[in-house]
Fold:
Amino acid sequence: MNLDIWLAWCLACIVISITPGAGAINTMSNGIQYGVRHSLPAIMGQQLGLAVQFIIVGIGLGSLLASSTSLFDIVKWLGVLYLVFLGIQKWQQPFIPLKEANSCELEYKRRFWQSTFVNLSNPKATIFLVALLPQFLDLERQQFTQFSLMMFTSLVIDIIVMLGYATLATTLVLWMKSKKYQRRLNHLFGGLFIVAAGLMASFQRQ
Structure:
């Protein structure tokens, strides 16, 4: 892959990662409640979901998803329902004292797999990769190497951006000391999860 093409891919990945979506909302929610360091399991879970999306596209299932209306709808609505579930769960979350939120009882494994599913159940990402990846692949060169480099680049950039979102979220941590403001933030992020579900529900194949 030529340097100029790789730099163009980096720019595309930055724009995609910075654009607010379910992953960013999930990361900020974790950042507020657990801090940047303890948000890493959620961030890495999202990367696993993104990596699986790349693999799906790489082995050709992305084309099947793009061409099959019923399969696309099944995956889409599973994602919509899951985001609504997360929204309701966040909305109803009881007050957690800041000391407890930063304790060792951080449910790393649960948040890792929850974040994986947030990315994995978004067919929009798969369709987007199906449309975007061919624009950057040089068919006269070894495609596996190019594909691997693009996936690795995308994962690294997304980790950096998500760490940025988690860091930004920690600026609101003082609000978490107040039961009233923590409840408001839980309602805010619960509502954002549901908005993300609505956006996913409205997405149509082009």
Remarks:
- Residues 143-169 form the longest helix (27 residues).
- Residues 23-202 form one domain.
- The mean pLDDT is 78.
- The chain has one domain: 23-202.
